[in-house]
Amino acid sequence: MGVMEITRMQPAGLVVSPAFSHVAIVPAGAATIYVGGQNGVDDTGAVVSDDVAEQSVRTIDNVSIALEAAGASLADVVQWTVLLAADADLGAAYGAIAPRLATAGAPPLVTAARVVGLGVPGALIEVSAIAAVVPG
Questions:
Q1: Half-sphere exposure of 59 (CA within 13 A, CB side)
Q2: pTM value?
Q3: Taking all residues of the chain, what is their mean pLDDT, rounded to a whole number?
Q4: 49-85 b/e (C-beta count within 10 Å ≥ 16 → b)
Q5: What span, in angstroms and rounded, lies between the C-alpha atoms of 6 and 93?
Q6: What span, in angstroms and rounded, lies between the C-alpha atoms of 61 and 74?
Q7: Which residues pair with 33 in a beta bridge?
Q8: Is residue 121 scored above 90 in pLDDT?
Q9: What φ, ψ does residue 90 adopt, rounded to 5°?
Q10: b/e map of 102-131 (b: 16 or more CB within 10 Å)?
Q11: Could you read off the pLDDT of 40-51 as tens digits, one per residue?
Q12: In terms of CATH architecture, what is 7-133?
């Protein structure tokens, strides 16, 4: 295809949303970074709060730390996966992190789900990410 940048698309025939895209094309030669599920925990593994907004902010901080260690940033995220405990306040969680999920240009791909529980006791949110950095 000869693409030299990451292209995010909202193809005709699919719903248009300012919050997410449907397709992303990452060019050959880009470094792909996978960040495993992060929770709202501090560097000792303790859950930071029982408030979903506070956990959400810390979760994105943790994703950011992981990305920076790999030479990327939140702006390089191509796809987010967001898991919320079934009883967590969706509005509070997304309200706390939505501005930080945005990428340059078109929005990233987003998969979100409500789950019965998460692996970390007391965690209300878990976020993983796939980022790509184009050389140059």
A1: 32
A2: 0.90
A3: 92
A4: eeebbbbbbbbbbbbbebbeeeebebebbbbbbbbbb
A5: 27
A6: 10
A7: 131
A8: yes
A9: -60, -45
A10: ebeebbbbbeeeeeeebebeebbbbbbbbb
A11: 999 999 999 999
A12: 2-Layer Sandwich (3.30)
